[in-house]
Amino acid sequence: MESVESAANLRSQFHEVLRSRRSPIVSTLCALQTLSAEPVVEPLFQGIPVDFEVMRSYPKARINVEEQLNEENFYLPTEEGEQGRLPVLILSMKECTQSKRPAVVFVHPSNANKEWLRPSLEDYASRGYIAVAIDSRYHGERAKTPTAYQDALVSAWKRGDIMPFIYDTVWDLLKLADYLTTRDDIDHSKIGITGNSLGGMHAWFAAFVDTRYSVVVPIIAVQGFRWAIDNDQWHARVDSIKPVFEEARIDLGKETIDKEVVEKVWNRIAPGLASEFDSPYTVPIIAPRPLLIINGEDDPRCPVEGIDVTISKTRKAFEDAQCFNHFKVIIEAGIGHDVTSSMLKEASDWFDNFLKP
C-alpha cells in the first residue's frame, strides 16, 4: 500500500509541475475536438540531419501496403497558444477483422518530426496496429525556423515560462491519451508508447505519469541525470543542446560550463529532473506494466553505469509485483547514441508479445 501511495504522490507532484507553466487549459471536451490537417510534404528538420537509413532498413521485407492504409492528419488542442496545437499522424489498415485494435504511439528524437517515423508507422499498421505519431514541442509543424527547439530552450532558461525539454511534450502525450481512449477502434487497455533519444525520454515520462500507456519501450533514452552531474558525465548530454548551457554560463558569470551551470539549467527548464523525477524514482513506477529499456553500451549521453541503480530498483518493483517477465533491459554491445535495426526489432517483438491478441 505504501508503494502505491508513494507512486500516486510522485505522479501528483509531477502533474503540478506540468500545470505550473501551462497556458489556460483547454477543457476536456474541447481538447477532444480535433482540427483537420493536410499531410506534410516537406517536413522540417533541425540541426544535424537525422539518419533515415535505420528507419528504412527495418523491416527489410516490408510489404508495400500504402494503398491499403488509412491515413489521418489532424491537430489536437492541448492548451491555448501556438504550441498548444498538437500535430498527429495516424496510420491503420483500411480493412481489419478486429473491431478494436492495439495502438502504439511513436515519438521522434531531437531535430526530427513525425514524418521521420513513417516507416515504423507503416510497418505496425500493416500488422494490425493503429500507429500514432506526433510532433513534439518546437519540432516539425510546431517549428517555424531551423533553430526553433534550441531557441525555445534558451527562452526557457531566460523566462522560465515553458518547459520544452521533455515536460511540455509529456503534457501533450497525456492529452493524446485522453483522445485515444475515446476512439471506438482502439482497445483502450492496449496502448503502447515508444521513442528514441528525446522521444524515448518522452515515452518514459509519459508512462511514469499516465498508466493508460500500458506497454513501454524507451530506446537510448533512460539515464541518470543526478548521477551524470555527480560523476562528471554530463558533457555529451549538454553538448546535444549546448546553446542553453552557454547562455546560462554567461548569465552566471562563468568562464566555462561546469557542474553548477548544468544543475541550475536542469532546475530551471525541467524542475526535478535531476532530483525527485530522475530515473531511479520514476522508471520503477512503470511496474507492473511491461517495460523494455534499450540502450547502447558506449552511449555517452546515457552512460550504462548511470542507470545501474535505476535498473536494480525497477527490477525489484517488478519482482514485488510478481511480473518477472514484464521487465527487460537490452544493452547493445559496441553501440553509442545510435538506434539500430536490431533495437527496432526488439521493440517490435516486445509490443507483439504484450499487445497483439
What can you see in these coordinates?
It comes from Lactuca sativa (Garden lettuce). This is AB hydrolase-1 domain-containing protein. InterPro entries: AB_hydrolase_1, AB_hydrolase_fold. With 357 residues, this protein is an alpha/beta fold. It is 39% helix and 17% strand. The chain contains 14 helices and nine strands. The protein has helices at 2-20, 28-31, 53-57, 118-126, 148-159, 167-180, 198-209, 225-230, 235-240, 242-251, 259-269, 279-282, 308-320, 341-355, and strands at residues 35-36, 69-77, 85-93, 101-107, 130-134, 186-196, 215-219, 291-296, 327-332. A nine-stranded mixed sheet has the order 1-2-3-5-4-6-7-8-9, sandwiched between helices. It is globular and about 60 Å long. It starts with a helix and ends with a helix. The mean pLDDT is 93.
